[in-house]
Structure formats: structure tokens, C-alpha cells
Specification:
Pathway: Amino-acid biosynthesis; L-threonine biosynthesis; L-threonine from L-aspartate: step 5/5. The chain is α/β, with parallel strands linked by helices. It contains 15 helices and ten strands. The protein starts with 6 loop residues before the first helix and ends in a 5-residue tail after the last helix. The structure holds ligand F0G. The site of ligand F0G has 22 residues, from helix 4 and helix 9.
């Protein structure tokens, strides 16, 4: 029986680790590539979802974190720090436990989803809620890493990108070729940078014969790359991508230019519609930010930008359980019944 060993063991020859490196892993990667029936029908394409919410802490961040924490441990670090909209902090907290290190996380006050806060708490992270947004948190985290004995595990740490590029490898390994288009949500822009690197490496080595066009989507209220300027007060219900000054801005532009791709925006309303479609019609429960990729694909299709017959992969970056408030908000409360089959059947409309 083949047991998936985590991205470092599975792709060791393509990652910056030594033979002697002691790997810190929770078995991340090897996530499902799910055919999306409704999206395929709507677009006339062959659409797949790369379900990154299936990672150990529920988001794609684990791919980068296994690398970042493995490296930090190798270098003798005793503590790691990150700025986060929630998923990076959840991942850092879990992998730090694994490595017997201390984790410190800086999050924007009141702007991280409940599940993510719960993860950081239960893994014993030192949590500071900052009176500012993600961009302020990142500025602080960099300053602390520069001046104190703590190692920065945000995606400005290049080994994070190395780990995250393995998602592109998995897609090519599964499909036997790169897709025509790859669609992603964009926040700090590390992930689009990582996928583009992965696809380019496989093409350069002849594992794939081509690279896809990279399509990235920001939330309209937090779309600095689309607008071409820093957004001072970023807004969106997709709190994971509520970022006004992405660290990998230039790399995202390079991915777009080199791939003949696109960076555009989707409204919160479009994000929510895609969130509901994924859960209600594809059976895939994601957090709101993740739905930005699918919202973007649907927007582009409406604009006539999607030629039928193409193979398209949308990364859905985080698990829906991260943000339970969003799932329950505005929904009717389930009916209460006594322990009575007839009452249940009646309420379920089974009695004709
Ligand atoms: N989707 C989710 C669920 C995320 O958590 C993030 C980023 C993104 C998309 C965007 O990815 O930043 O590489 O462009 N979350 C970071 C965090 C910022 O702190 O967890 P990106």
C-alpha cells in the first residue's frame, strides 16, 4: 500500500533539502483533483478543482510550511513568527508543534475567521491581534524577525514558495500534461508565484510540454494589483485575501505576463455566488476566499474569454470549515422535532 509521505519526500529531488535534512511533515499535499461537473457544463470546458482544503490544517499553506519549518529547524531556530489572515498562522502553529518550536502569530484584530483562530489557539501559538490590517502585521513580523531571535515563515521566505510549487507538479502528474488555464485567488500573491514556478520547472525539464495561462483573481475591495496601486484600507468578506499591498506583487505580474494570463477582480457578491455553487452543486465546501478562483472563471466565461474545450484547473485554497460563521449566517435554523418518525417524515415532506 502506498502511503503519501508529504510533499518533501514525494518531490525531494525538486526541493532545496539535503539528504540529511530532518523533515517536519504532517503528510501535506497529495490533495484531490476533482472534476467539476457543473462548472464544466457552464463553461463548455473540462474544469477541475484542486482541493487544497484537504491538507492537514485545511489550506494550501501546509505545502510551504513543511519547507519553512523544516528549514528553520535545520538552522537551529527555536521560534517562528508570521503575519497572517488566518491560514498561515494555523499552519505555522501546527508545524511548530511538530518541530517542538514556539510559534508567534500576528493577525489583524477581528478580521480572521473563527476556525483559524481556534487552530492557532489549540496548537498553542502566541497570538497577538494587531490594530491594523494584514499589511501592518507583515511589516511588524519582518521587523521582529530582523531584530529578534525568531524566524519568519511568511511567503517572503523563499522556501515557502518552493513547497507550494508542488501543487503544480501534482496537477501535471495527475493530468499527464499542464492544463490550458490555471485559476487562483490572489492575496499576498505567493501562491500564484509558486504555481507558475512549478509549471515552468516541469516544462523546462520536459515533464510537461507547455505551461498554462495563469489567471489570478483578487477581491474588488482588495485589488491593488488590478488597480495598480496600494489599497490602504482593503475590504472584502473573503478575509483570507483582505490584503492591500501584496509582498509578491511583481512576481504575480511576471506570472501574468510570461504566461499570457490575466489578473482581475471579483466582487464579494460574485465570490459568495461561487461559494454557494461549489457547496450546493459540486459538493465541495470551501472558504470564501477560495471561491474567488471559481468566481473569476465564471466572470471570464461571461465575458467570452473562455473558449470551449479547454482544460482548466481552479485551485480552491482553503476548507469551508475554517469559516463556519459564513456558512450559517442568514440560513434558517433547522426545525426541532420530538423523537417521532411521523413528525420527522412530515417535516421532511416525505408524506406526500
Ligand atoms: N486563499 C486562502 C484560503 C488564503 O488563506 C490565502 C492567503 C489566499 C487564498 C491567497 O494566497 O496570499 O498566496 O496570494 N492567506 C494568507 C494567510 C495571506 O495569512 O493565511 P496568496
Amino acid at each position: 500500500v502506498h502511503q503519501w509521505r508529504g510533499i518533501i519526500e514525494e518531490y525531494r529531488d525538486r526541493l532545496p533539502v539535503e539528504d540529511t535534512t530532518e523533515v517536519v511533515t504532517l503528510g501535506e499535499g497529495g490533495t484531490p483533483l476533482v472534476p467539476a461537473q457543473v462548472l464544466s457544463e457552464r463553461t463548455g470546458c473540462e474544469v477541475y478543482l484542486k482541493v487544497e482544503g484537504a491538507n492537514p490544517t485545511g489550506s494550501f499553506k501546509d505545502r510551504g510550511m513543511t519547507m519553512a519549518i523544516t528549514r528553520a529547524k535545520e538552522e537551529g531556530a527555536k521560534a517562528v513568527i508570521c503575519a497572517s489572515t488566518g491560514n498561515t498562522s494555523a499552519s505555522a502553529a501546527a508545524y511548530a508543534v511538530r518541530a517542538r518550536m514556539v510559534s508567534a502569530v500576528l493577525v489583524p484584530q477581528g478580521k480572521i475567521a473563527l476556525g483559524k483562530m481556534g487552530q492557532a489557539l489549540v496548537h498553542g501559538a502566541k497570538i497577538l491581534q494587531v490594530e491594523g490590517n494584514f499589511d501592518d502585521c507583515l511589516t511588524l513580523a519582518r521587523a521582529l524577525a530582523d531584530n529578534y531571535p525568531v524566524s519568519l515563515v511568511n511567503s517572503v521566505n523563499p522556501v515557502r514558495i518552493e513547497g507550494q510549487k508542488t501543487a503544480a507538479f501534482e496537477i501535471v502528474d495527475a493530468l499527464g500534461e499542464a492544463p490550458d488555464i490555471h485559476v487562483l485567488p490572489v492575496g499576498n500573491a505567493g501562491n500564484i508565484t509558486a504555481y507558475w514556478k512549478g509549471y515552468r520547472e516541469y516544462a523546462a525539464d520536459g515533464v510537461a510540454s507547455r505551461t498554462p495561462r495563469m489567471w489570478g483573481f483578487q477581491a474588488s475591495g482588495s485589488a491593488p494589483i488590478v488597480r495598480g496601486e496600494v489599497v490602504k484600507d482593503p475590504r472584502t468578506l473573503a478575509t483570507a485575501i483582505r490584503i492591500g499591498n501584496p509582498a509578491s506583487w511583481q512576481q504575480a505580474l511576471a506570472a501574468r505576463e510570461e504566461s499570457g494570463g490575466l489578473i482581475d477582480e471579483v466582487t464579494d457578491r460574485q465570490i459568495l455566488a461561487a461559494y454557494r455553487l461549489l457547496a450546493g452543486q459540486e459538493g465541495v465546501f470551501v472558504e470564501p476566499a477560495s471561491a474567488a478562483s471559481v468566481a473569476g472563471l465564471l466572470k471570464a466565461a461571461e465575458q467570452g474569454l473562455v473558449d470551449p474545450g479547454q482544460r482548466i484547473v481552479c485551485t480552491v485554497t482553503g476548507n469551508g470549515l475554517k469559516d463556519p460563521d459564513r456558512a450559517t449566517e442568514g440560513a434558517p435554523r433547522p426545525t426541532v422535532i420530538p423523537v417521532d418518525a411521523a413528525a420527522a417524515a412530515h417535516r421532511l415532506g416525505l408524506t406526500g
